[in-house]
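Researcher: Sit down with what I've pasted below and flag anything odd:
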Amino acid sequence: MKKSRFFGTLFIFMLMVALIVPSNTLKAADNYVLQIQTAVPSASIYFQLIERMAKRIDAMSQGRLKVETLPAGAVVGVFEILDGVDKGVVNGGQAWTHYWSGKHPAGLLFSAPTAGLGVGLDQLSVVSWIYDGGGEALYQEYFTKILGYRIKGFMCMPMGPDPFGWFKKPFTSLADLKQVKFRTPPGIPAESFKLIGMPTVSMPGGEIVPAAQRGVIDAAEWIGPADDRALGLSSVWKNYYLQGLHQAADVGDIYINLDWWNKLPADLQAIFQTAIMSCIADTYNWNVSQNGAALKELVEKQGVKVLDTPDDYYPAYMQAAQEVLDKYAAKDPFFKKVLTSMQEFAKVTVPYQARANGVFYKMGQTALDKGVVGYGK
């Protein structure tokens, strides 16, 4: 009799706990694994940044949400990442929206707005437009309505500005560039280069060094000092121009299968979104520290010369980019909608950003001219 009374009391207690504890807490024991296949090799700092983000997610979720980072080609090809995430072959991916410009050209506007759209929009302002200027809704519309994918996107890796690139010979004017066979990203950047008279070639990053060794190209751009060093570009060229416009803003993103995302508990969604914002800060930090250290090594140990891009390049390329962008806007309503939104945001932010950021350039250049900083100091 006592035993049955004990079990009856225990049953009532467990029933009360089940009624009191929220259902989402009862699901807290569920574990989720997000596999993010990147568009870069494991040596890339982009890959490492996602690994760092994965550790923060693991800690914040107490192991309930695990992120596995996979290098380029691990499951699907680089240019198959979006389709792979949409179909659930992998439930996550990383690349840049300009990779999908062949599907719809507006992809470039989100991740690599060429030459600041010709209106001076800098990288920090592009991120601000995404999260505080109406860009995020347009960005999501790009995936679900324009491309028709079941994908949730997150802009989170502002790694630019990308250097102009590596050159076989130094150049002093825009006229010199018209003789250079240049590897550049396809699409709007390449079209803009062609308008200023530069012959361009597009190829994957892994083909750049072999093409240079065969004399197929005279120059190339890739990502930045750290990734350029890892790719071995300094082994074939020594003239490095940091100031370029084709990807003056370069923001990477992460994709998640939308059905998988919608099934993720609300608290884990919030943790992931918080980790995305931390990844933005982490990327800005690493962009400075890792690229700064890489450039120092390239100059001091590999004989690389860092040169300034001639002044006549800037207005010519900005004008060319504007002409190409206007051409696409005239053809496609969505492209025009995104471009107009960004241009309107630029009217507000560029007058402030250009003048405020100018102080850092002048401050740094003054220190360089005085010799108080620089390699060997």
Q: What stands out?
A: The mean pLDDT is 91. The first helix runs from residue 2 to 20. Residues 33 and 66 are 5 Å apart (CA to CA). DSSP finds 15 helices and eleven strands in the chain.
